[in-house]
Amino acid sequence: MKFPLFVGCGIISIAALATSFMFDPTLDEAWLSWKSFHKKQYNERNANYRRMVWEDNMKYIANHNLEHSLGKHTFTIGMNQFGDLTAEEFKQYLNKFSKKESGNFTFKVFTANKNVELPLAVDWRPKGYVTPVKDQGQCGSCWAFSTTGVLEGQVFNKTGKLISLSEQYLMDCTRSVGNRGCNGGCKVQALLFIKENGINSEESYPYTAKDGDCKSNRDDIVATCKGVTIIPKNSEADLAAAVATVGPISVSIDAEHRSFMLYKSGIFYEPRCSSVNLDHEVLAVGYGTKNQKSYWIVKNSWGANWGNEGYVHMAKDMDNNCGIATSAVYPEV
Ligand SMILES: *[C@@H]1O[C@H](CO)[C@@H](O)[C@H](O)[C@H]1NC(C)=O
Ligand SMILES: *[C@@H]1O[C@H](CO)[C@@H](O)[C@H](O)[C@H]1NC(C)=O
Hints:
Elements: H1 14-22, H2 28-37, H3 44-69, E1 75-77, H4 87-90, E2 108-109, E3 122-123, H5 142-159, H6 167-173, H7 187-197, E4 199-200, E5 221-223, E6 227-230, H8 236-245, E7 249-253, H9 258-261, E8 263-268, E9 280-290, E10 293-299, E11 311-315, E12 329-332
Parallel strand pairs: 2-6, 8-11
Antiparallel strand pairs: 1-8, 3-9, 4-5, 6-12, 7-9, 9-10, 10-11
Helix pairs in contact: 1-3, 5-6, 5-7
This protein binds 2-acetamido-2-deoxy-beta-D-glucopyranose (2 copies).
């Protein structure tokens, strides 16, 4: 799409012309308030392109939610901080480097106790196992948030203290084991690093959303782990047993769909999702059932304004949709 350029025109601005010719004027106010809420600033040319992408997302949202009201979907979507991104651009927020998960690691395999009947619903948040939702910002560091999240829960179980742990520490200090900070990483590598070296608190090593050098001080180590346990691959039954009996579990998912980027509420189910090509790390903190449909309660790291107060309910027992049970782990503390 080309925008008209009126060089030297002192009366009508280019942006105003583009708006009146190209854009839906009924969305002007929503665009302005969205930009101001998310503190978005563009130069004039970029603003036109961003408005176009944003309008396309607005139409996609309206269409999806209309279909939802007609019973076609189990979840709604809505405008959020990613509203000016195409699905392709959105990938920068995802993990570009989860393939290493299959490396040469020493770990235990979780075995569910078949004699224990699992509760119908589990939620570790009111039990004190889960820190408030964090925000990774414009950085592909989800793997670090998933790692701190699962360790925070197990440290709470062991000590009765909920200590927010440092993602920046993992980003800066685990390069030696192959992780790449904002360019992705592997949670198993991170946990094995913590086993050898411990981890700092969020407070002593705050998040910057930028790559940096390791500035860890041994005096600031607040937690460690003894090893890593893997949940049997692709088994939602084993994942449920682990979530019910161990605590929050670190999981990988396929998150690269526009429906996920703009998820708002309800049970997320994406038929186009892969169970193999996973690009995002999150934390399963429970599960439940609504209207005969089961879901996982999943903590994300895109701030509390994303999704359902920072969380997403993901379809459970729907053939491992989005690969939630493909690569699930927790540390022994
Ligand atoms: C995996 O690690 C073990 C122990 O460090 C080593 O003996 C073995 O050769 C490694 N295997 C591969 C395929 O790298
Ligand atoms: C830790 O987990 C064990 C075993 O599930 C449980 O008995 C104990 O109450 C938990 N501790 C806390 C503080 O929740």
